[in-house]
Amino acid sequence: MGTAGRLAAYGLVLVLAFVGAWALGSAAGPAAAPGASVRQGDTHADGHGQDGHGEHEHGGAPASDGLAATAAGYTFVPVTTELTPREPGEYAFTITGSDGAPVTAYDVEHEQRMHLVVIRRDAAGFFHLHPQLGDDGVWRTTLTLPAAGIYRVYADFVPTGGPPLTLGTDLFAPGGFTPVPLPPMRVWEVDGYQIRLDGDLVAGSPSQVFATISRDSAPVTDLEPYLGAFGHLVALRRSDLAYLHVHPDGAPPAPADRGGPAVAFTVEVPTPGTYRLFLDFRHGDVVRTAEFTVPTRETG
Hints:
Elements: H1 3-28, E1 70-71, E2 74-78, E3 89-96, E4 115-120, E5 127-129, E6 132-133, E7 139-143, E8 149-157, E9 165-173, E10 187-190, E11 193-198, E12 206-215, E13 218-219, E14 232-237, E15 245-248, E16 262-268, E17 274-283, E18 286-295
Antiparallel strand pairs: 1-2, 2-3, 3-7, 4-5, 4-8, 6-7, 8-9, 10-11, 11-12, 12-13, 12-16, 14-17, 15-16, 17-18
Protein backbone atom coordinates (compact mmCIF):
# COMPACT_ATOMS: atom_id res chain seq x y z
CA MET A 1 0.00 0.00 0.00
CA GLY A 2 1.35 3.42 -0.92
CA THR A 3 1.82 6.32 1.45
CA ALA A 4 -1.46 7.96 0.41
CA GLY A 5 -3.35 4.71 0.94
CA ARG A 6 -1.86 4.25 4.41
CA LEU A 7 -2.82 7.81 5.43
CA ALA A 8 -6.38 7.32 4.17
CA ALA A 9 -6.73 4.08 6.14
CA TYR A 10 -5.34 5.70 9.29
CA GLY A 11 -7.81 8.59 8.93
CA LEU A 12 -10.69 6.13 8.62
CA VAL A 13 -9.64 4.41 11.86
CA LEU A 14 -9.63 7.75 13.70
CA VAL A 15 -13.10 8.62 12.43
CA LEU A 16 -14.47 5.24 13.49
CA ALA A 17 -12.89 5.61 16.96
CA PHE A 18 -14.38 9.08 17.38
CA VAL A 19 -17.85 7.89 16.34
CA GLY A 20 -17.67 4.97 18.78
CA ALA A 21 -16.65 7.23 21.69
CA TRP A 22 -19.43 9.68 20.83
CA ALA A 23 -22.00 6.87 20.84
CA LEU A 24 -20.84 5.61 24.23
CA GLY A 25 -20.95 9.10 25.70
CA SER A 26 -24.44 9.70 24.37
CA ALA A 27 -25.69 6.45 25.89
CA ALA A 28 -24.23 7.31 29.28
CA GLY A 29 -25.79 10.79 29.32
CA PRO A 30 -24.17 14.22 29.71
CA ALA A 31 -21.13 14.48 31.95
CA ALA A 32 -21.37 16.63 35.04
CA ALA A 33 -19.41 19.85 35.02
CA PRO A 34 -16.29 19.89 37.20
CA GLY A 35 -17.30 20.33 40.82
CA ALA A 36 -20.98 19.70 40.11
CA SER A 37 -22.85 17.11 42.14
CA VAL A 38 -26.25 15.54 41.61
CA ARG A 39 -28.10 13.71 44.36
CA GLN A 40 -31.32 11.83 43.80
CA GLY A 41 -34.13 12.63 46.21
CA ASP A 42 -32.34 15.60 47.75
CA THR A 43 -33.49 16.33 51.29
CA HIS A 44 -33.73 19.80 52.74
CA ALA A 45 -31.53 20.44 55.78
CA ASP A 46 -33.73 19.90 58.81
CA GLY A 47 -36.38 19.06 56.23
CA HIS A 48 -40.04 18.80 57.12
CA GLY A 49 -42.39 16.88 54.87
CA GLN A 50 -46.16 16.55 55.03
CA ASP A 51 -45.95 15.12 58.53
CA GLY A 52 -43.64 17.92 59.63
CA HIS A 53 -40.48 15.85 59.76
CA GLY A 54 -40.30 13.94 56.49
CA GLU A 55 -38.32 14.44 53.33
CA HIS A 56 -38.83 16.56 50.25
CA GLU A 57 -38.35 14.39 47.20
CA HIS A 58 -36.88 16.22 44.25
CA GLY A 59 -35.30 13.58 42.06
CA GLY A 60 -32.18 14.85 40.36
CA ALA A 61 -32.05 18.08 42.38
CA PRO A 62 -28.50 19.46 42.62
CA ALA A 63 -26.70 18.86 45.88
CA SER A 64 -27.05 22.02 47.95
CA ASP A 65 -24.66 22.30 50.87
CA GLY A 66 -23.91 26.01 50.99
CA LEU A 67 -20.56 25.73 49.22
CA ALA A 68 -21.90 27.43 46.10
CA ALA A 69 -23.96 30.55 45.50
CA THR A 70 -25.87 29.03 42.58
CA ALA A 71 -27.80 25.77 42.24
CA ALA A 72 -30.84 24.58 40.28
CA GLY A 73 -31.07 27.94 38.51
CA TYR A 74 -31.26 29.98 41.75
CA THR A 75 -28.53 32.38 42.90
CA PHE A 76 -27.75 33.97 46.25
CA VAL A 77 -26.91 37.61 45.40
CA PRO A 78 -25.61 39.66 48.36
CA VAL A 79 -26.47 43.35 48.45
CA THR A 80 -24.28 43.71 51.55
CA THR A 81 -20.75 42.39 51.20
CA GLU A 82 -19.06 44.12 54.16
CA LEU A 83 -20.05 45.07 57.71
CA THR A 84 -18.08 46.88 60.41
CA PRO A 85 -17.30 44.58 63.36
CA ARG A 86 -19.20 45.24 66.62
CA GLU A 87 -21.54 47.72 64.96
CA PRO A 88 -25.17 46.89 64.10
CA GLY A 89 -25.71 46.89 60.37
CA GLU A 90 -28.21 45.79 57.78
CA TYR A 91 -27.50 42.63 55.86
CA ALA A 92 -29.45 42.51 52.60
CA PHE A 93 -29.59 40.04 49.74
CA THR A 94 -31.77 38.64 46.99
CA ILE A 95 -32.41 35.19 45.61
CA THR A 96 -32.69 35.34 41.84
CA GLY A 97 -34.16 32.77 39.47
CA SER A 98 -32.84 31.61 36.14
CA ASP A 99 -34.29 34.76 34.53
CA GLY A 100 -32.21 36.96 36.83
CA ALA A 101 -35.28 38.43 38.58
CA PRO A 102 -35.68 38.30 42.37
CA VAL A 103 -37.68 35.33 43.63
CA THR A 104 -40.65 36.45 45.76
CA ALA A 105 -42.56 33.20 46.40
CA TYR A 106 -41.26 30.83 49.06
CA ASP A 107 -42.64 27.88 50.99
CA VAL A 108 -42.76 28.04 54.78
CA GLU A 109 -40.24 25.64 56.31
CA HIS A 110 -39.73 25.44 60.05
CA GLU A 111 -42.27 28.24 60.45
CA GLN A 112 -40.18 30.60 58.31
CA ARG A 113 -39.77 31.36 54.60
CA MET A 114 -36.04 32.04 54.97
CA HIS A 115 -33.40 30.84 57.42
CA LEU A 116 -30.13 32.77 57.35
CA VAL A 117 -27.14 31.17 59.06
CA VAL A 118 -23.89 33.10 59.58
CA ILE A 119 -20.60 31.72 60.86
CA ARG A 120 -17.02 32.91 60.71
CA ARG A 121 -14.65 30.94 58.50
CA ASP A 122 -12.88 29.47 61.56
CA ALA A 123 -16.29 27.94 62.55
CA ALA A 124 -16.85 30.38 65.42
CA GLY A 125 -19.41 33.18 65.82
CA PHE A 126 -22.71 31.50 64.92
CA PHE A 127 -25.99 33.30 64.08
CA HIS A 128 -29.38 31.93 63.01
CA LEU A 129 -31.59 34.73 61.68
CA HIS A 130 -34.94 35.11 59.95
CA PRO A 131 -34.81 38.09 57.57
CA GLN A 132 -37.87 39.82 56.17
CA LEU A 133 -38.71 40.02 52.47
CA GLY A 134 -39.46 43.46 51.06
CA ASP A 135 -41.76 44.36 48.20
CA ASP A 136 -38.63 44.91 46.09
CA GLY A 137 -37.63 41.25 46.43
CA VAL A 138 -34.78 42.04 48.84
CA TRP A 139 -34.36 40.15 52.12
CA ARG A 140 -33.14 42.29 55.05
CA THR A 141 -32.08 41.69 58.65
CA THR A 142 -30.00 43.40 61.33
CA LEU A 143 -26.65 41.77 62.04
CA THR A 144 -23.87 42.65 64.46
CA LEU A 145 -20.67 40.75 63.79
CA PRO A 146 -18.69 40.23 67.01
CA ALA A 147 -15.21 40.47 65.49
CA ALA A 148 -13.28 40.93 62.27
CA GLY A 149 -12.90 38.11 59.79
CA ILE A 150 -14.49 36.43 56.80
CA TYR A 151 -17.94 35.01 57.46
CA ARG A 152 -19.89 32.41 55.54
CA VAL A 153 -23.57 33.22 55.03
CA TYR A 154 -26.10 30.52 54.18
CA ALA A 155 -29.58 31.09 52.77
CA ASP A 156 -31.69 28.02 53.61
CA PHE A 157 -35.04 28.10 51.78
CA VAL A 158 -37.53 26.41 49.47
CA PRO A 159 -38.64 28.48 46.47
CA THR A 160 -42.26 27.75 45.62
CA GLY A 161 -42.25 25.14 42.88
CA GLY A 162 -38.51 24.54 43.28
CA PRO A 163 -36.22 22.25 45.30
CA PRO A 164 -35.05 22.82 48.89
CA LEU A 165 -31.78 24.74 48.71
CA THR A 166 -28.95 26.00 50.85
CA LEU A 167 -26.85 28.57 48.99
CA GLY A 168 -23.80 30.32 50.42
CA THR A 169 -21.66 33.41 49.98
CA ASP A 170 -19.04 35.33 51.97
CA LEU A 171 -19.35 38.45 54.10
CA PHE A 172 -16.33 40.54 55.10
CA ALA A 173 -15.65 42.29 58.39
CA PRO A 174 -12.43 44.33 58.05
CA GLY A 175 -9.75 44.15 60.72
CA GLY A 176 -7.23 41.87 62.39
CA PHE A 177 -8.29 38.27 62.69
CA THR A 178 -7.03 35.45 64.91
CA PRO A 179 -8.65 32.02 64.46
CA VAL A 180 -10.27 30.55 67.58
CA PRO A 181 -9.04 27.05 68.57
CA LEU A 182 -11.95 24.62 68.71
CA PRO A 183 -10.96 21.37 70.46
CA PRO A 184 -13.55 18.56 70.71
CA MET A 185 -16.34 19.70 73.02
CA ARG A 186 -19.63 18.04 73.94
CA VAL A 187 -20.79 20.19 76.87
CA TRP A 188 -21.84 23.82 76.57
CA GLU A 189 -22.95 26.28 79.25
CA VAL A 190 -25.03 29.39 78.59
CA ASP A 191 -27.08 31.55 80.99
CA GLY A 192 -27.00 28.89 83.71
CA TYR A 193 -27.99 26.08 81.33
CA GLN A 194 -25.84 23.02 80.77
CA ILE A 195 -26.28 21.22 77.46
CA ARG A 196 -24.64 17.84 76.83
CA LEU A 197 -24.44 16.12 73.45
CA ASP A 198 -24.36 12.32 73.36
CA GLY A 199 -24.09 9.96 70.41
CA ASP A 200 -21.46 9.36 67.74
CA LEU A 201 -21.19 10.74 64.24
CA VAL A 202 -20.43 7.97 61.75
CA ALA A 203 -19.41 9.00 58.25
CA GLY A 204 -21.57 7.65 55.48
CA SER A 205 -24.60 6.71 57.58
CA PRO A 206 -27.34 8.52 59.52
CA SER A 207 -26.21 9.11 63.11
CA GLN A 208 -28.50 9.81 66.06
CA VAL A 209 -27.37 12.36 68.62
CA PHE A 210 -29.09 13.52 71.81
CA ALA A 211 -28.90 16.96 73.40
CA THR A 212 -29.79 16.91 77.11
CA ILE A 213 -30.61 20.26 78.68
CA SER A 214 -30.44 21.06 82.39
CA ARG A 215 -30.45 24.24 84.42
CA ASP A 216 -28.61 24.55 87.71
CA SER A 217 -28.14 20.76 87.56
CA ALA A 218 -31.90 20.11 87.28
CA PRO A 219 -33.37 18.60 84.08
CA VAL A 220 -35.36 21.04 81.95
CA THR A 221 -38.69 19.35 81.17
CA ASP A 222 -40.66 22.31 79.87
CA LEU A 223 -38.82 23.21 76.66
CA GLU A 224 -41.01 25.23 74.31
CA PRO A 225 -41.37 24.41 70.60
CA TYR A 226 -39.02 26.34 68.36
CA LEU A 227 -39.29 26.23 64.57
CA GLY A 228 -41.57 23.21 64.71
CA ALA A 229 -39.51 21.12 67.15
CA PHE A 230 -38.11 21.21 70.68
CA GLY A 231 -34.75 22.14 69.22
CA HIS A 232 -33.21 23.16 65.92
CA LEU A 233 -29.79 21.81 65.01
CA VAL A 234 -27.39 23.09 62.35
CA ALA A 235 -24.36 20.96 61.44
CA LEU A 236 -21.32 22.21 59.52
CA ARG A 237 -18.26 20.30 58.35
CA ARG A 238 -15.35 22.19 59.81
CA SER A 239 -12.92 21.56 56.94
CA ASP A 240 -14.96 23.46 54.34
CA LEU A 241 -18.11 24.62 56.23
CA ALA A 242 -20.41 22.41 54.18
CA TYR A 243 -23.98 22.74 55.47
CA LEU A 244 -25.27 19.30 56.38
CA HIS A 245 -28.62 17.59 56.69
CA VAL A 246 -30.17 17.30 60.15
CA HIS A 247 -33.61 15.94 61.02
CA PRO A 248 -35.37 16.34 64.38
CA ASP A 249 -36.71 12.98 65.50
CA GLY A 250 -40.34 12.42 66.44
CA ALA A 251 -43.58 14.13 65.49
CA PRO A 252 -43.71 17.94 65.51
CA PRO A 253 -45.09 19.30 68.80
CA ALA A 254 -48.20 21.43 69.13
CA PRO A 255 -47.61 25.04 70.26
CA ALA A 256 -48.77 24.25 73.81
CA ASP A 257 -46.65 21.09 74.13
CA ARG A 258 -43.60 21.01 76.37
CA GLY A 259 -40.59 18.72 76.13
CA GLY A 260 -37.16 17.84 77.42
CA PRO A 261 -34.75 17.28 78.90
CA ALA A 262 -33.47 15.33 75.87
CA VAL A 263 -33.94 16.25 72.21
CA ALA A 264 -32.96 13.73 69.52
CA PHE A 265 -31.70 14.42 66.01
CA THR A 266 -30.45 12.38 63.09
CA VAL A 267 -27.35 13.84 61.43
CA GLU A 268 -26.04 12.73 58.04
CA VAL A 269 -22.28 13.26 57.78
CA PRO A 270 -20.75 12.22 54.42
CA THR A 271 -17.06 12.09 55.31
CA PRO A 272 -14.76 11.50 58.30
CA GLY A 273 -13.59 14.63 60.07
CA THR A 274 -14.66 17.17 62.64
CA TYR A 275 -18.07 18.82 62.66
CA ARG A 276 -19.52 21.85 64.37
CA LEU A 277 -23.07 21.44 65.71
CA PHE A 278 -25.23 24.35 66.87
CA LEU A 279 -28.41 23.75 68.87
CA ASP A 280 -31.09 26.42 69.21
CA PHE A 281 -33.67 25.80 71.95
CA ARG A 282 -36.37 27.90 73.60
CA HIS A 283 -37.10 28.06 77.31
CA GLY A 284 -38.81 30.85 79.21
CA ASP A 285 -39.68 32.35 75.81
CA VAL A 286 -35.97 33.00 75.15
CA VAL A 287 -34.00 31.27 72.39
CA ARG A 288 -30.49 30.21 73.35
CA THR A 289 -27.74 28.49 71.39
CA ALA A 290 -25.35 25.73 72.43
CA GLU A 291 -22.38 24.75 70.29
CA PHE A 292 -20.35 21.56 70.04
CA THR A 293 -17.25 20.33 68.21
CA VAL A 294 -17.52 16.61 67.43
CA PRO A 295 -15.14 14.37 65.46
CA THR A 296 -16.54 11.36 63.65
CA ARG A 297 -16.15 7.94 65.22
CA GLU A 298 -13.77 5.61 63.43
CA THR A 299 -15.38 2.42 62.18
CA GLY A 300 -13.90 -1.01 61.67
